Amino acid sequence: MNKKDITLVIADDHPMLLKGLNDELISNGYNVIAQANNGIQALELILKLHPDIALLDIDMPLLLGFEVIKMAREKGSKTKFIILSFHKEAYYIVQAKTFQIDGYLLKEDGFFEIDHCIEEVLKGNIYYSKSIDDKPLNLATDELKRLNLLTLSETKILKLIAQEISNQDIAESLSLSIRTIEKHRSNIIEKLGLKKGNNVLTNWALVNRTVILSQ
């Protein structure tokens, strides 16, 4: 496929990064048909314009990049999705692999990597940045697999934690005591094999929110 025939939607909430990406893609012959600076706008453009590829940041207002992809696919979108992010932590990479996202690049990568990723994704391959260290992935993958060990009650509580709902509000919504909620939190930490510490479960749940809420 000729580059000028490849349609792209790009999304990033940093105006300078968005402009830089747009200019680089256009100067290399790609057809950027739309830009978005938040997740809702990105989703609307993808569903309306049906681009061949959408290049998305993860951390965007209104909807995260992962949420955009999940919702677009639920609506039947055939667009190929590539994440372009600063995040190289294992949790993010595992989430991308869990959702079978077509490509994952780092913003520190050169344009050659973007160009190569687009080429591979259009061939039907999955492509991840060569800068990503695979070594921590097994640990993060194991934690997500352990979600299946949770009871229905624990899963419900974890989903509420992932939505940043306080222990007090969780207790009230489920008609339980705060002490019971704290016991459930302790059990969840143990089952997931997380290291104990202040806010460890909340932080883990926020990082893995999209996966947790899809359970």
TrEMBL record:
Q: Which residues form the HTH luxR-type domain?
A: 143-209
Q: Which residues carry this modification: 4-aspartylphosphate?
A: D57
Q: Which domain of life is it from?
A: Bacteria
State the protein's name.
Response regulator transcription factor
Cited InterPro entries = CheY-like_superfamily, EvgA-like, NreC/VraR/RcsB-like_REC, Sig_transdc_resp-reg_C-effctor, Sig_transdc_resp-reg_receiver, Tscrpt_reg_LuxR_C
Key words, A-Z: DNA-binding, Phosphoprotein
- The chain positions of domain Response regulatory read 7-122
- Could you confirm whether the keyword Phosphoprotein appears in this record? yes
